[in-house]
Amino acid sequence: MRDVGSGATVVQGDNNFIGLSAEAVQGLIEAATRGVSEKVAEVSRQLGVSQEAMRAVLRTVGEAAVPDEQLAEKLAEVVEQFRIAVAAIAALRPENAAAQEHVAIAAIAAASGNRNEAQHQLQMARLGALNQANQARQLAKEAEWAAAQQMFQAAQAAEAEAELVLSSLF
After folding, report:
1. Is residue 57 part of a domain?
2. 58 and 48 in contact (C-beta within 8 Å)?
3. Res. 13: pLDDT tops 90
4. 39 has a pLDDT exceeding 80
5. Is residue 54 part of a domain?
6. How far is 113 from 124, CA to CA, in rounded Å?
7. Is residue 127 part of a domain?
8. 92 burial type by CB count under 10 A (0-12 exposed, 13-18 middle, 19+ buried)
């Protein structure tokens, strides 16, 4: 702040609080944010998700620079999508043990708001399932080949049997 003459003051910068001390500004911030934790706890109880998950959602919304008047609506949208994702994870029922473990860890991570860990675990479950599918396909190919070999051997046995029957005719 600098004085530019009688009755005029020029103020520069982003954090200007004319007429308020730093303590007063801190008091205003505390007053504005007082009750936020209680509100988050109440909403998280109503939605059936942990406070950590709610805080992760709030961080996500905050990063999106949502205007205050749209915050509740955007939070509701994000929370609904989050609930759909958690339900989708809960609905997974992989057959192989490794994928089951990854899905269980993903469910816990998602419920606690750790989206990165949940996504990583779901990727691991997907890769495990794909690996099992490829192994099953390979086994199916081997089984098909073995079946073809058995059919060929059965045909050879039938041919030998037919030759034996023909030899008895002479």
Report:
1. yes
2. no
3. no
4. no
5. yes
6. 18
7. no
8. middle
